[in-house]
């Protein structure tokens, strides 16, 4: 059989089964010798009669059967252990490129028996590459959330002091958590919830992060993100300048509250805003066509309006600052929302996550501090994030690990721009890729390219009167896009940074107990219906 006419994982199965058979026959022959006297001159005839008596002689068939069963068990274990998951044809020589291994083999390569590790798809991540960030890609229901939950669980577990590791310090989680799905499983006493529609939420506002005047420039790009469109970025940049100047003016006047910021950027008349910014860098933006200022204020309304929800809890709840928490805070942070709240909170959630990345990068580098894990499921559904790429490339100095979930690379490209999205994806060196919907050929194709190719030599034999043998050098993807489309649920490909082989893994569904309600609706002006029986103070009557 030529190398190209069988699968790679089948290359040794025939030989292994033959060894099992030879072992069983050898055991039977040994038992027959011990039980009977086998004359050498009539050995064949004696073996024939011994074979006929085997079904009626337990001393012959019992050891033979036991050896066969044991051999088949060993055969099955070895077949599973060495099954690489490569579904292509066998090859004679491997030249270069990516390789595949079984999950058990990869687990043995990466396991550190003396130190707890983060877990990616059931594979322990080597300590030396654990800071190179993590991506989880897959369509809805493919197993992405299970894998992220496993990652969170491993991060929290290794921060618990044990009798053999009394010096362990808790590692912190910041999770952008749709529907509170992870918080309800992993919430711990002392954790912090950020959601203006949740009654347990701490009070966060952009002014909680301002320490010096320069900070308004640092965080203005998080409040008004950059646009992937060059034309739209003109308006965003102008809106960003106005935002920074208003933030700074209010802060210097000791009026730095979310309520004041929302009023001046979304409700104040143009003339009033112009007067406020007369002596700032934004003054020149009020001299020109009304259409220009109208476009800028449209941008301000889009990104600033969601901050009005914060004003309802600004004085009612204890204040929270990402910068203070990063410096000396404890517990984990859960940024939650319910699906029906996403359209209202999306710019705000994106701002909070980006502010956290900026705050982490502005903090002094300290490799001795416990790791902080930024976990964001469905990162592609958020607005453009400006500091997450920098956090991905420079966060290692600050013990900042990012774990992000994606459903579609096309949506990520649309939000961030193709080049910026590619740069963002390049930040994640440790990846777990689940099944992708059949129609999303772009994401499946990109995953296939990312898993890599290999170059091999295959042996070809042709029949006929003059059989010939040829050797062809072939280059092919290790995993085809169609294989990614056809992955069963909870099955995916793990690719670790460096020269580690790729492994096809299958997760086991784990039903973790619920420890807290994911969302407890607050009762404020934004979450309760108005009293329609009260007399309106507005006159909506029209003159006849």
TrEMBL record:
Main location, first listed in the record: membrane
InterPro entries linked to this entry: P-loop_NTPase, T4SS-coupling_protein, T4SS_TraD_DNA-bd
Subcellular location, record wording: Cell membrane
A GO-annotated cellular component: plasma membrane
Membrane-spanning ranges: 12-31, 59-82
Domain of life: Bacteria
Occurrences of domain Type IV secretion system coupling protein TraD DNA-binding (ranges): 118-508
The entry's keywords: Cell membrane, Membrane, Transmembrane, Transmembrane helix
SUPFAM superfamilies per UniProt: P-loop containing nucleoside triphosphate hydrolases
Protein name in the entry: Putative TraD conjugative transfer protein
Source species: Burkholderia lata (strain ATCC 17760 / DSM 23089 / LMG 22485 / NCIMB 9086 / R18194 / 383)
Membrane topology of this protein: Multi-pass membrane protein
Pfam families according to UniProt: TrwB_AAD_bind
